[in-house]
# Entry
Amino acid sequence: MTDRRVDAEWWEVLNSPMTEPRTHEVQIVAASPDEIKALLGVHGDLPAGGEVPIADGVTLSGLRLTRSSGFEGTQYVLEALVSVATSVSSAVLAAWLIDKLRGRRGVAASLDGQEVRPADLDGA
Amino acid sequence: MYLHNPLNAHTAVYARFVTARDGAEPPPCDAELAGRALTRYQAHALRLYRTRGLEPPEAAPGEDERGLVSTFRRFLPGLVEGSPLAGAVAAVPVIFPRTVVPDARADAIDGQPVVYVSGGTLDVIELFARTVSRCARLNELALPVLRDLEPDPPAAVPLPWLTVGADQWVGLRVDELLAEAPGGPALRERLCGAMAALAPVSNAGLARHRLSYCLMQLVMRAVRRARQGAPGAVFLPDEPPDGPSPIDPVYLAQLTLGFVVLHEIGHHVLGHNEIGFRGSPHEVALAEAMLGAFELGEGEEAVDLVGRGSSFELAADAFAIQVVAAEAREPVLEAGSLWCAASERSAVVTGDRVRDLVELSRQPDAHPSYSSRVYYLNGRFSTGRRQGAIAQQIAASAESAAGELDHAGSEPITAESDLYREIWAIADHAAREGPYDWIVWPPPEPDENALDESDVLVQGLLAWEAGQLAEAEQLFRSAAQDSRPEPARRARVLLGRVLEERGENGEAEVMYREADAMGDADAANDVGLLLAERGDLAGAEAAYRRADERGCAPAGYNLGLLLDERGDRAGAVEALERADAREHPQAAIILGHWALESGEMDRAEACWYRADERGATGAATNLGYLLQERGYLDDAEEVLLRAGVRGELDGLHNLGWLRQQRGDLDGAAQAYEEAVNGGREASAGNLHAVQLALAERDEGDVPFVQAAAAGDTTAAVELGRRIAKRGRTADAVRVWQHARQLGEPEALNELGLAYAAQGDRAGAEAAFREGADREHRGAIYNLGVILYERGDVDGAERQWRRADALGDGAAAYNLGSLLEDAGEEDEARLAFRRADERGDDLGAVHLGVLLAKSGDTEAAAAAFGRAEQRGSQYGPAQLGDLLYRSGDEPGAEAAWRRADAMGNRDAAYSLGRLLRRLGNLDGAETALRRAVARGHPSASQELARVMAARGHQRAAATA
# Structure
């Protein structure tokens, strides 16, 4: 079961001061594009260089999806800039990503080079 | 015996490696690009670590700078020197992030291709290379012993592959070793325990082979656990192996890393990393055509067994082999294949090669099992020395290698690395030639006199053996009064036997009955025998049944015979089957006879195989007879030879008959003579007939001798052939030398062949060259073979092209193999077609394989059919595979049966597996036993499954 409670990490992010820049770099790594799209809640393609709204006031832009073949299986890396509307706290973006990552053991994400990760993973 | 070791140090590639190893520092990498690449890799590492439950590095990793890396940077250009794609390889930076999870990856930074090989992979490669090197040394020393233990040693042995997979000589379960984790003397005894009956050199050979197997299994386990993220899974031996080895570990590590890096570069070059890429238009069209060629039923999915159009991993593997310099191809193929074999089941797909390909069909970027990769590579590049049995053995070894580890689970044992190091230290001693002080000899067998003589039962047995029946009787009577039930019961049985021997059956019966009442199985059987003797069949039956229920094998046998005598054949069969399952030798013989009576040939053969295995008198004779009747002539001859060794005179006679039928008159005469000398007078007539035929044959030489003496060189050549067929090679050579002096080019070819067979390569080359100068087609072809064998591929190709132009089938075939090796498939196909048109059986086989690959199954089947007509066992074997892949199981079965009858071990194995699946356990058992007898590496395991399914658990455990 997914634990939907607001955990300490999320709470901390929600209450962090709003001094972050309004655009962030996001990087999502998964075994398939479908897993990335499922995480972002996107239907259809991830258009190269294009924009995709992913939540109220939050849009991904400059999308770049690359495929990397490897010994440990194929990995897909989505790199994008995240534009956050002024009405939306950047902390909400991090919290939103953390929530989306819950229960997805095969997906890793980072925001501005820092790993974003739920405090605990259900089913782990 | 020919040793196949492409990793030897006498090649141009090894010389390049030495230059690289001893060379100056390579030019530094673009530091800015390396920094960006390592930052980028952090994203990959994040997921790799998290999916294994590990903490990823907090910052971008630094680069691994071990010696393996710096040497590799110097070695890589030499490895691809001369390749048209050398520039493409050089354009891809290779970065070595210092991260622990094994990974190798083709990636891009802003469109710039880059390859990563993690430090975890380098660790595993070094462990792998050092271990394979050490194991090659152990097996090199063990080889003469292993060869002597084989009744029919193979003509060629792929030395590095003796390390991979188990065989009958290993006698060790690594899963049990891991579970028990013995140390010190217990571990040494387990690995180096000697058999008293064998000489020190033989025990040393077996122990070395066992050590090699054990080390490699631990490496495979380490690879598997490292990829699962187990901390401390990889452990490097402290010191590099000392002492000589046929494989330099540093060189092997370089070749392996080369294979890994070039595989990843292959992904770039072949476009695999483009989003949405499903293969080049040509590949997609090919794959679709192949998949569309099958008529599929509902719910079925086509299987692209070739994989070429549908698997990026297989394509990248092939790229890694094709892109290297021609002379490096076989070493890189060997290193890459061994690496893949060592990685088998480290990433489990389904664990079954065929099922993997089913499940992965239409998923080009999914990873097939590693055994599939070995199978594909060695099929794809099986040319020259590698073709045929060696490529097949390599693929089969990879397939069987990892199965044994599945029992071990993945949990680490305490101090697993210590266990490895301790075994490594033992192997250090074993890797040196004698003395054999590391062998652990068993304690001396207890002498019979050392029995506990205070035991009254023992005293009674000793007296009985000395013929002192009265004293034995007295002692057993005394022991029968023992208050302990077990000695009292056994004493009654022994007393009964002494009494019976003295003719006192009545008293004996009393003793047996008392022991029977105490639950003794043998006593119940003895009661049954006495009752049967005096005609009380009902009483005997009841007694036998009691003994049978208590697990007495002879009782089941006796019961079976009794029931049969009373007309209850069904009951008799059931009883004998129980005795057979308890390893009763004669029960299996009788069952075989009854099966033959009712026309159940498979069942009869299976029964007699089992009886033969148990050493039952007459079993080998029966089995040999049946195998001959069924057309398995090579198998029959081997079994009948065994019958002869056991002194079975009927078997010797049958051996003579078989050889006579096969035209081997000398061999037939020898067998008949042995039978007559052994006392089988009825063989004298046959011996006489064969001797007459031999005299007639020798008389047939007379016209040739006369013509040769008169200067007829053609007659001289033919005379030499007739003499050589009888094994008189030296006489034949003299005749051909005479013809050579008279200027006969055919004699030069024959002389070259004779010299080559004697190991005189220089003499053979001189003879072939002289024949080639006179435009003798066969000599030109054979000169090519000699040049190829010494590594001069270009020279060989020139000669084969000459012979091909003169219409030589074998030359066209060899040329086709070279062209296929070089990736020129269209040209290769034309060459195979020419070979086929000229009647070459292998040409037809390979043409068929290429036709099957391109989807033209009808033409492929026709080609395999032609090969079969020309006597090639590979024709029906390949046809069986083709039909099986297309879903035609009855057709596949029929083709495999024909190949099996021609002695093909793979077909026997495939047939056995198919029959097991179809529930025909008799057929499966016989086919698998033939595959085992022919040396198929996986057949024993499969046979064990069949035996287990039949309830023969003890036989299954030892199969």
Observations:
- The helical segments of chain A are 8-14, 33-40, 90-101.
- The interface with chain B takes residues 27, 29-30, 33, 48, 65-75, 77, 105-108, 110, 115, 117, 124 of chain A (CB under 8 Å).
- Confidence is low (pLDDT under 50) at residues 1-21, 120-124 of chain A.
- The beta strands of chain A are 23-30, 52-55, 58-70, 75-84, 108-111, 114-116.
